[in-house]
């Protein structure tokens, strides 16, 4: 009998390691295949909750936030680009790219959960931001992304124009902070095991198989 893997993926849309980690996790799950019954849910974490909707220039944001030089920021960005490419994800970021507030995008992901479409929307948002350079704080952009995922674009626009799911996002952020999650991506498996960071597929597969073995022996 295949075993259950309940996976809670805590992340932000503007977090490059979250995009890398999700790609790695998905590949690992494909390799595990029918050996496990997977229940995957996405939860909000805001790296930059104070950012305005208009965003901030990427190079300025990174150097200010992490107190590193522009040259170091560029080196880091190229390393991240290479890691992303290794798991099949394309990052098109440069000095002038913008970093956006993600609160409304998180609200839309909660809404998509009611439509059983979280995974599709999450993947589309990551691509829109990192690959296509879209403003994922703009409501029209978000509604269009939702529609491209097969969701009701008009309903998405109505959600965004209201304050629906705002409290749910805040409550989830508080809950995961209380559980000790202070960096992302954080992958919590079966409410007991934590896999941190944008791990490569091999690491995710190894750890998930170890969890399955541990659960089977419990």
Automatic annotation (TrEMBL):
InterPro entries the record matches: DSBA-like_thioredoxin_dom, Thioredoxin-like_sf
Domain DSBA-like thioredoxin: 7-208
GO molecular function per UniProt: oxidoreductase activity
Protein's recorded name: Disulfide bond formation protein DsbA
Organism per entry: Herbaspirillum robiniae
